[in-house]
Amino acid sequence: MSILKGIVGGILGYLLGAALVTSIRAATGAEPWDFEVATMGAYLPTVVGWLLGVGVWEYWARPWFGREAKPYTTVGWRRYFNFDTDHKVIGIQYLVSFLFLFFLAGLFAMVMRWELMNPGRDILTPSSYNGFMSLHGTMMVFVAVAAIVGAFGNYIVPIMIGADDMAFPKLNALSYWLVPVVVAFLTASFLVGGYDTGWTGYAPLSVTTRTGALFFNLAFLTLGLSSIVGAINFLTTVHKMRAPGMTWSRLPIFVWSIYVTSWLSLIFTQFIALAMLMVVFARTLGMAFFEAAAGGDPLLYQNVFWFYSHPAVYIMILPAFGVTLEILSHFSRKPLFAYKWAVGGMIGIAAMSAFVWAHHMFTSGMPDVLLKPFLASTELISIPTGLIMLSALGTIWQGRLRLHVPMLFALGVVFNFLFGGITGVFLADAPLDIQLHDTYFVVAHFHYVILGGGIFGLFAAVYYWFPKMTGRMMNETLGKVHFWWMIIGFNFTFMPMFWIGMNGMNRRISDYVPNLGGTNRMISLAGFFLGMSFVIFLWNYIYSWWRGADAPSNPWGATTLEWMTSSPPPLENFDVIPEVVGGPYTYGDKSAKHAILEPRL
Amino acid sequence: MSDIAATGEMQGARRIGIGVRVVLVLGALTVIEYAIAIAEPPGQLPLIFAIALAKAVPILIYFMHVNQIWGGEHS
Amino acid sequence: MTAVGHAAHGVHEAPAKRLGINRLGLWFFILSESILFVGLLMVRFSLLGTYIHEELSQLIGLMITVILLASSFTAYQAERSMARGDLGATKRNLLITLGLGTVFIAGVAFEWHEALEAFPPSTVFGSVFFTMTGVHVFHVLTGLVMLAIVHRRVRRHETTSTDSWPVEASVKYWHFVDVAWVFFYPALYLIS
Question: Among B20, B55, B57, which would you mutate to test the C interface (most chain C Cβ atoms within 10 Å of its Cβ)?
Answer without folding.
Answer: B55
